[in-house]
Fold this sequence. Notes:
By secondary structure, the chain is of the alpha/beta class. The chain is 20% helix and 22% strand. The strands form two sheets. Strands 1-2-3-4-5 form a five-stranded mixed beta sheet. Strands 6-7 form a two-stranded antiparallel ribbon.
Amino acid sequence: xxxxxxxxxxxxxxxxxxxxxxxxxxxxxxxxxxxxxxxxxxxxxxxxxxxxxxxxxxxxxxxxxxxxxxxxxxxxxxxxxxxxxxxxxxxxxxxxxxxxxxxxxxxxxxxxxxxxxxxxxxxxxxxxxxxxxxxxxxxxxxxxxxxxxxxxxxxxxxxxxxxxxxxxxxx
Length: 171
């Protein structure tokens, strides 16, 4: 990206991140839920000019509603959630409107296809709880990333909070 600043931190420090966001006018960040919680919990945010921060995209863990509410109220930014894994990166995201951030892991991103299927390959009903083990259910990732079912099947059990959610209503 030519002409667009790219701001990185060497070690996470929420106070330093607030300084960097304000000083450089950062508009977007992508980080795990604990970083969003740290940032939204910083004292003195009301006196800081963070209005250019338009979106905080988070992945890696579900975002508790209290953290979303704090971020929206204190940072005045849109919170977006994604779902993916190291093996396939993010394959879903909630809209930039912030709509559905508390109820879904979002829509399938362009160039991706995501299905939650049972061991017989039948698509699970939308809104149905996912299995406690990837050996009982497999996630099919198709599209530009290729089929990763075999890899994902070998990962083992995922705790309930780490399993993907496919909403009953389209995002």
